[in-house]
Amino acid sequence: MNPSLLTVSLSPHMYSGESVRKIMTGVLVALMPAWIVSLIVFGWAALKVSALAVISSVFFEYLIQKYILKKDPSVSDGSAAVTGLLLAFNVPATLPGWMVVLGSFIAIAVAKMTFGGLGNNPFNPALIGRVFLLVSFPVAMTTWPKPFSGAMAAVDGVTTATPLAIIKEGLKNGLTPQQLMSELPRYSDLFLGKMAGSLGEMSALALLAGGAYLLYRKIITWHIPVAVIGSAAAFSGLLWLVNPVKYMNPVFHVLTGGILLGAIFMATDYVTSPMIPKGMFIFGGGIGILTVTIRVFGAYPEGVSFAILIMNAFVPLINRYCKPKRFGE
Amino acid sequence: MTIVFTIVTLSVLGILSAVILYAVAQKFKVQGDPRVDQVEAALPLANCGGCGYAGCRNFAEACVAAEDLTDLYCPVGGQACMDAVADILGKKVSQKDPLIAVIRCQGSYAHRAKTSLYDSAPACSIAASLYGGDTGCAYGCLGLGDCVKACKFQAIFMNPDTGLPEVIDDKCTACGACVKACPRFIIELRRRGPKNRRIFVSCINQDKGPVAKKSCAVACIGCGLCVKACPFEAITLKNNLAYIDHEKCRLCRKCAPVCPTHAIVEMNLPELKAASEPAGVKSSA
Amino acid sequence: MRSGSPKTFPQGGVHPHDSKLSADKPLSMLPLPKTVAILLSQHIGAPAVPLVKAGDFVKTGQLIARAEGFVSANIHASVTGNVKKIDPVKDVTGYKRPAVILDVQEDEWAGGIDRGLDLKKDIPGREDIIAKIAAAGIVGLGGAAFPSHVKLSPPKDKPMEFLLINGVECEPYLTADHRLMVEKSEEVVTGVRILLKGLGIDQACIGIEENKPDAIDILAAAARDYPGIRVEPLKVCYPQGGERQLVKALTGREIPPPPKGLPSDVGCAVFNVGTVFAVYEAVQKNKPLIERVVTVTGPAIQNPSNFWVRVGTPFHELIKAAGGLPDKTGKIIAGGPMMGRALDSTDIPVTKGTSGLLVLPEDQAKRELVENCIRCAKCVFACPLGLEPYLLMALVERNQLDRAFGERVLSCCECSCCSFVCPSHRPLLDYIRLGKANVFKKLKEQKQK
Description:
Order of helices and strands of chain C: EEEEEEEEHHEHHEHEHEHEEHEEEHHHHH
Strand order of the largest sheet of chain A: 2-3
Oligomer: heterotrimer
Number of strands of chain C: 17
Number of helices of chain A: 16
Helix content of chain C: 25-40%
CATH architecture of the largest domain in chain C: 3-Layer(aba) Sandwich
Largest interface: A-C, 40 and 68 residues
Order of helices and strands of chain A: EHHHHHHEHEHHHHHHHHH
Number of helices of chain C: 13
Structural class of chain C: alpha/beta
Strand content of chain A: under 5%
Shape of chain A: globular
Distance between the termini of chain C: 55 Å
CATH topology of the largest domain in chain C: Rossmann fold
Strand content of chain C: 15-25%
CATH class of the largest domain in chain C: Alpha Beta
Number of strands of chain A: 3
Radius of gyration of chain C: 21 Å
Radius of gyration of chain A: 21 Å
Helix content of chain A: 55-70%
């Protein structure tokens, strides 16, 4: 091409400089505090799971794009790495390596690429991977290493139950929340990350720090996290007020399990969440209420993944009916 | 006992549902003219919209409703199809020659120099709304393939060597979708001619001769030599541009050799004998 | 009078870097070019009808083309010289339009034009004002170039309340209006008074973005004797200067959506600062609109400048005066970077609507690679009109024009905010524009049926 020719294009002629890669890098940065907490709490086991998940996710995406779809691989945009890390955040640190890889395959190949890749998947890929593992390998997926037991946790068999599982079991056996309190971690431990659970749901503080960074970078808006946490707290609070002997208090509900991880990182996934604040409130509210419903009335002790996936299914409908305020109307 | 109860319940539910479905289907049945179905069956069912109606069904309804079929024509099915429709309905039908889409621009990469770099969404309609295009010719093909996208019969493809679309004679049904899609009105439906032979001015540049010639080596410069050469008064000159009326053209081949810029294209015609000036005509496609 | 806290419009908008390189460059006169090409259609509405033919001698300020119909504008010779020919010339739309081409001689002004720089404060009566504005061929200088006398004659059933003056200049790089407000504040205020009288109202509001504190202070000082004229600081947010956004920010009223809604529907008339100055000159000095301020700027331009330029001057003369075309120039834009039009030639002449010339280097000229839509909703949050650009683009791509119409594609003001923020670099506005054009075409066809 002749270099002296002028470029002609439609306006605008200047851009914000934002790109998919920068956004995904921002998400990875925001996930770092929680990841570091997981390394501190679970040691090498956490590193192994997260590295496996990220590498295999990126690898599967590359393979599929290059050899099946015959496109230029776009793994450098970082979305596969985010999916991988989020999947790792949603499994126990002791999960066998091959299961992690299988989960990544399901997340990338089934939940993402079959729909046309980034931007077209109706469901959150990491959660599809996680739920697939949960229903396929329920034992492995609910065997939680005791915090700070190190890499030997699985070998030593030092396992423990998550706070939510303790509650579920206890309430079923007729105990009251007050009686269960002694078995549960203290609130400060929940906040800082000393409890059993998946890699990423350890420390509320680390997750909130990541969320603050996302908000600061304007990668997410506040609507979905606030709606999820608010509705979960409101609904569980309502139950608690009705019968404090039978139901846990809302603070406990919000701080345990995956609510914060889900609210800040999973429900705010661009592709599978609504576009308009009004829709975001409906979506987030639905997640919060469904999560508490599953936790309190369902068979599983934890319900964030299912709640988000169920609400994912409603996103096209929400987008169809929630319209922004049109100027002049 | 439980199993019996279950079977009975489900059977009753099933029968009940079937009855409801049947009743609703009967109540809301649409009573149509059966001839519409017959006409529709005779149509090519391409739903291309070439007839001016949204789909073949609409066209069939229009045929049934019309006094006679003189204003209705299915370009895809052609005369045979219209005759069949006329038989079904017992109505009069007009005789029409089969048409084909022709692309009236030869401004290939070799013939037209680039004057700017287009850098927006790859669609001719968008480029045309932005400016006169990335060559000096503000009339010619933009080469971004809106016509290719519009064609439902895969009858147009982009030639990567010339950057211009080309029509595949056998596949073109003259539905006119490409004519509507082209923001420059370059494509025209013309008489197919015997053995797909056709002669046309492959340029729509209305600039004055020197300006047109400067932007494209094979532009029509409006010199009028072809008008004088034509024994059938089929060629007219308007706005610095010659146009061959395809109803009047008898394919006598007097015009193409006199064109100084080779803007007149003869398609699917044998090479002229060496006696006359070689016209530099491509019989491509 | 100056108002208190800065106002803004309520939804959407973006914050591009403002890059006002020429903000402190005083207005200077561009030397006369050798030839000028004065387009017959420099405004919205019917092209003017030429009154001259090849070989005629015309003086500066002489009428050379008459307005055709009500929505049209007179065109005057911007230089003295002989008419070379009337011929199609490429304009900023990238297509050729008829223009009067003049060979320039030494300046000789037509009679009756007061060229003195003294300030004339006494203003004539209403009829006189409108007649003089129409005669002088004044059009909106903000870019749309709508004939001003039409705005001064609103329909009787729509009573006027506010005159709003657009001194926002929210486009990055451009400083033409800014310099005009700073250097010609008294004239601008007199122009506002003329327009108030022309509209028969007494409330005027001058909206200026906060990043021009000097202009706010100077205009507030010039307007202190006129209690009906307020100077309102506005928050820096693009597109603060859009007609709908400005009316909303200054009056709280929302203009109904297109295709019908106009400022007059909510009792407002909006004029650009440049137009106000042109009105002052036309009414007080009998000077037709033959020159305007044009900003010539760009990251690699040697002397970013604000020139007084005669209409019809080719763009290359402006670039030459600002230090010449830099090496590795990739793009030349008429107007600002958000809404301006990229040009494929520098021979295009200045028109009444040309507010600036922006020269971008090669590394800023190209668009980035288009990626999949990741549904981040940044375009939805950026749209100042409450549209969903991602959806509109998808609908237009699939040619679902009826749905696009239902999703208010026609409301789009083409401010470019959506394309600006898109992290996947999708050509949102390209397709929305196409959708607008196609929907208009379809509506027209339906009307004809």
